[in-house]
Amino acid sequence: MYDIIIVGAGPAGMTAALYARRADKSVLLIEKENFGGQITYSPQVENYPTLMKVSGSELAQMMLDQVMEHGAEIELAEVTAIQDGGEKKTVVTDQGEFEAKAVIIAAGSKHRHLGLPNEDELVGKGVSYCAVCDGAFFSGKSVAVVGGGNTALQEAMMLSEYCTHVTIIQNLSFMTGEAKLVTALSAKDNVSMVYDTVVTELVGEEELKEIVLHNSKLEMDYAISADGLFVAIGQQPENEPFADVAALNEAGYVMADESCLTRTPGIFVAGDCRTKSVRQITTATADGAVAALAACRYIDSI
Ligand SMILES: Cc1cc2nc3c(=O)[nH]c(=O)nc-3n(C[C@H](O)[C@H](O)[C@H](O)COP(=O)(O)OP(=O)(O)OC[C@H]3O[C@@H](n4cnc5c(N)ncnc54)[C@H](O)[C@@H]3O)c2cc1C
């Protein structure tokens, strides 16, 4: 039996593994597809302290090297359930079952994509899912934001500070975000909002050049040029396997505060998969440390 099993090897899970190993706990880190998590999709990270510029995959590799150096064991498997047996937790995967005294869920989340054919190829070449992460690359350029909720509106507001123009593309006939934000954006000369409109095509190969739009009210197709497209249509946590041991909110995030405790003693949660307002590498790594130290304290108390 391991001391701690960590589900998910993104920045949160890997930081948790590092802290747990440094506290001399045995650790199994289980990842279903991609050691490094979401950040491996980022061509350039410029907001992780001490690293001026690093590709997401380099950063992920450095994190993995560090946890391996400290003696964490890794397993490529998908966790399908966690069973709480009090002082023994069973982690069920598609490769078999593993036991631990404590479990940290660090399963992350995924940004919803538009589902357009060349969307994935254009990530890092104009298409982004995070203005906080990538907005600065588009300073002095023209961008579009897809979405009408608070995240999209806040991202548009931020981008409007340094982009020449921001077009907000909303599929409904109204914005679903706060009226105050809509009013503030409406007052800006470099922001325009289009309603009843969806993106139907991304034009560009080496980089994004144009976005083709369809207005469903006017039954009209047209293209706008844009250097960047920020897709802000929500995130999708994948927390169903943990619903028996952790309470999920209506959006599917594991309910926990900064203490990273779930409703089950000995089961903790860290990173983008939990309820929180800022989903970044720094906040994920911070959670990883908090959850690991809480798990160590729990183990020492049983
Ligand atoms: C394109 C892109 C660019 C970004 N750029 C930046 C940036 O510049 N700066 C910044 O701070 N943030 C950036 N982010 C956000 C940042 O990557 C995330 O906030 C961070 O990765 C969250 O870490 P995490 O460990 O909580 O989750 P994730 O990184 O999502 O990792 C979770 C891991 O858990 C695994 N997993 C999920 N379910 C299971 C299961 N059932 N069994 C086993 N494994 C499972 C997943 O496969 C994944 O590897 C970016 C995100 C994207 C998508």
What's the number of structural domains? Answer: 2
Structural class: alpha/beta
SS elements, strand count: 17
Order of helices and strands: EHEHEEEEEEHEHEHEEEEEEEH
Count of helical regions: 6
Q: In terms of per-residue confidence, which ranges show pLDDT below 50 for 5 or more consecutive residues?
A: none
User: Which band does the percent of strand residues land in?
Assistant: 25-35%
What binds here, in terms of ligands, is: flavin-adenine dinucleotide
Distance linking N and C termini: 15 Å
User: Helical amount among residues, as a percent range?
Assistant: 10-25%
What would CATH call the homologous superfamily of the largest domain? FAD/NAD(P)-binding domain
- CATH topology of the largest domain: the name is FAD/NAD(P)-binding domain
Radius of gyration, whole Å: 21 Å
| Largest sheet: number of strands, sense, barrel closure | 7 strands, mixed
CATH class of the largest domain: Alpha Beta
Overall outline: elongated
Overview of the structural elements:
With 302 residues, the protein is α/β, with parallel strands linked by helices. It has 2 domains: 2-110 and 235-301, FAD/NAD(P)-binding domain (3-Layer(bba) Sandwich), CATH 3.50.50; 120-231, FAD/NAD(P)-binding domain (3-Layer(bba) Sandwich). It is 23% helix and 28% strand. It contains 6 helices and 17 strands. The strands form 4 sheets. Strands 1, 2, 3, 4, 5, 6 and 17 form a 7-stranded mixed beta sheet that branches. Strands 8-15-9-10-11 form a 5-stranded parallel beta sheet, with helices on one face. Strand 9, helix 4 and strand 10 (165-169) form a beta-alpha-beta unit. Helix 1 (11-22) packs parallel to helix 6 (281-301) and helix 4 (150-160) runs parallel beside helix 5. The chain is elongated and about 65 Å long. The chain starts with a strand and ends with a helix. The relative contact order is 0.19. The mean pLDDT is 96. Bound molecules: flavin-adenine dinucleotide.
